[in-house]
Specification:
284 residues; 5-stranded mixed sheet; 20% helix; rod-shaped
Length: 284
Amino acid sequence: MCYKFLLKILLTSLCLLVFSRISDSDISAETLFDEEYHIGSDDILTIQVWDNDDLNRVVEVSKDGAFTFPLIGKVHSAGLTLFELENHLKKRLSDGYLVKPEVSVGIQQYRNQKVFLLGEIQKPGSYVLKRKTHILELISMAGGFTDLAGRVIKIVRPKQLQNHKGVISPVNLEDNSVITLDLSKYSDDIAYDVFYVTSGDTIYVNKISRIFVNGEIMRPGEFKWETGLTVREAVSRAGGYTENAALKRTKIIRLINGREQEIDTRMEDIVMPDDIIKVPGRYF
């Protein structure tokens, strides 16, 4: 269980590191996100008309992407940026109602921006993005990783969002809508933008990869898999061989194309996730 404890500390520390970097960053990044944000249904907006306090409103965008506003009635806002909506309101209010109105629009709640978080996290479910959100900040909001969390995070992103303005993907998606983030390869040299989520993402935190060692072994059981792990190292983690072990007949049972296959193996062969290392006994 020691390796699980250390892994949890590593992943938690990583969350705290990223969260602190985000918290200390310049607020201009969030401001830029607001400027590029496209309004959607259920979003709550604040609208201020300068020198006309009686027109100031907090409005909710309806399912059909609109809201009503004094003097001008129904306003279609879905798909517009805040800047575009401000200009739209200025134009309509100046059409026989106000002289050179100054309008400011802000986002009170980003209810339209939802993501889904699944897998090895404490509180899986849907989450609303209230602002530009880092993926590890989102996981922290969900209670953090479970003890069984691995280092790989997969993001399924709707294809229509892959080329959306402002969305930065960590890999070249082409026709594939699955993004894979390997936290074991994380470093400060990796741009933070590749770890930001976008509305519609489904994020899955995988379970830690494992192997099984059984047969003539001192401590048979389940063990953590790591890249480059050899048969010799796996057996060593299981306490080594018993006196009755037939080393030369050690085999790996591996799932290939949906079928289990027995593979003759040597001590320096590489073990794959979910492999079963089987050490038979000697004949007498």
